[in-house]
Amino acid sequence: MLRLIGNFDIAEEVVQDSLVAALERWPEQGIPDNPGAWLMTTARRRAIDILRRDRRYAEKVALLERSTLPSDPVEADDRLRLIFTCCHPALSTEAQVALTLRLLAGLTTAEVARAFLVTESTMAQRLVRAKRKIKAARIPYRVPEDHEIPGRLRSVLAVTYLVYNAGLSNATEAGLCSEAIRLARLLSLLMPDEPEVAGLLALLLLTESRRASRTRPDGSLMLLGEQDRTRWDRALIKEGQEIVRRCLRRNQPGAYQLQAAINAVHANAATVDQTDWSQIVGLYDQLLAVAPTPVVALNRAIAVGEVEGPAVALALVDELDLDNYYSYHATRADLLRRLGRDSEAASAYERAAEMAPTDAERDFLMLGGRGSR
């Protein structure tokens, strides 16, 4: 509907109206043979009724009256067009995530607001501004041309990953994890030849396989080394590892594929002591080559510490400029504790706790990490 109308608000309204009509009629009349076609036809008729009241939309009315809407929006790539529209680089990352949650993940404005920890009215204003920006900038509702895909796809994948992490870090919004995986599956279906799309899907599946074991019943945090691995979802691990193997055969390594491969190695180990840390360090070496960021270097240093000891790791960590990143201080605290430098470790734990993004992480750090890795 957005593709035909070119107006977010009207498109949303007529789609919602068609869903309400279905809820009213289908229980009495029965579900039609092609529910998608019924919904889209109903939405089109409603759109024509609304647009006829405004002469500015005469051209759109004619287009709607002539159009034959596809019954399956996936076949028409409509959702792919919508993903790229929501994630256009002209929009801020925050706006990209909010629009994706609202228009593709199906969250209400109130639910999106909770994910951003703002009021519903504040989020409603942000969504309105984002839609106006799309209209004012005349951002096209289309899949980018082949030469535009690499740059634009990065935003799409980053937004999907941010949606997942928003659910991972906020227990009250855990449904975002499922929505991000659904979006990643959709991208994989619509873009089967993009290895980084496959890599992101594998990364989310492998991360999701451990989500249930990340916290205790009281909500407190459990690090990887102390998790009950019998609670890991083996079906998700199997699916994620198979995607990783397919990515390796393509030999087109990218950041998401390499992160997925690292998670696949962790999933292979029955216990933390059986983890192939040397292989993980090698994968981080590759990841640092394609994504040379301080955060990647920090994670590589952690893996190096498991192979060469905490002193070597601490020397690598202290070279990084990450003073405003809480995981940097948490990592230093753990390494200092393992080296017996308890006073320095306590200060680092306190600094990390002050910056922790969630209550569970702050409580964990205030207890000195419980000595776990």
In short:
The chain is an all-alpha fold and 373 residues long.
Which keywords apply here?
373 residues, mainly alpha, 19 helices, 67% helix, 0% strand
Walk me through the structure:
The protein is mostly helical and 373 residues long. The chain is 67% helix and 0% strand. The chain has helices at 2-5, 8-29, 35-51, 58-66, 78-86, 93-103, 109-116, 120-136, 149-169, 175-190, 195-208, 234-250, 255-268, 277-290, 294-308, 310-317, 326-338, 342-355, 359-366. Helix 12 (234-250) crosses helix 13 and helix 16 runs antiparallel to helix 17. The protein is elongated, with a radius of gyration of 24 Å. The protein starts with a helix and ends in a 7-residue tail after the last helix. The model is unreliable at 71-76 (pLDDT under 50).
Mean of pLDDT: 85
The chain-level structural class is mainly alpha
What value does the Rg take, in angstroms?
Answer: 24 Å
Q: What does the overall shape look like? A: elongated
> What is the tally of helical segments?
19
User: How much of the polypeptide forms β-strand, as a percent range?
Assistant: under 5%
How many E strands?
Answer: 0
First and last CA, distance: 50 Å
Q: Helices and strands, in N-to-C order?
A: HHHHHHHHHHHHHHHHHHH
Helix content: 55-70%
Query: How would a crystallographer describe the biggest sheet?
Result: none
Stretches with pLDDT under 50, minimum 5 residues: 71-76
